[in-house]
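Researcher: I'd like a candidate sequence for this fold, 115 residues long. If you have to choose between options at a position, lean toward the conservative one.
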């Protein structure tokens, strides 16, 4: 099989995804694309073939996930980025981890995404 797998995880699912990588070969992990929302664990391209971690500025997991919290602080303090309701998402990469931070939208869900 040469196809790709897109795996989406939320909160604790990101932690479980990270723990599962030890049960997969490097070739198997390279086929998996991981997207996390409010993850308890950040996932990087080193872990799987591709990974991106979404957080909203009101995400409670930012209090527990030091990597995501530091990435957001780096944007707001070092780069002067301010995320307000209705602001476009902001992407950043820190130590091999890809992040997208969103602000909640008025009338949108907690992740700032309208479906």
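Model: Candidate sequence:
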């Amino acid at each position: 099989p040469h196809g790709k797998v897109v795996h989406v995880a939320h909160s604790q699912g990101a932690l479980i995804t990270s723990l599962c990588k030890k049960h997969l070969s490097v070739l198997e992990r390279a086929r998996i694309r991981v997207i996390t929302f409010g993850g308890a664990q950040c996932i990087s391209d080193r872990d799987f073939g591709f990974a991106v971690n979404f957080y909203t500025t009101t995400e409670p997991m930012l209090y527990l996930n030091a990597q995501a919290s530091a990435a957001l602080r780096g944007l707001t303090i070092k780069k002067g980025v301010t995320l307000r309701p209705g602001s476009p998402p902001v992407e950043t990469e820190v130590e091999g981890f890809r992040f997208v931070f969103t602000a909640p939208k008025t009338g949108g869900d907690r992740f700032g995404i309208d479906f």
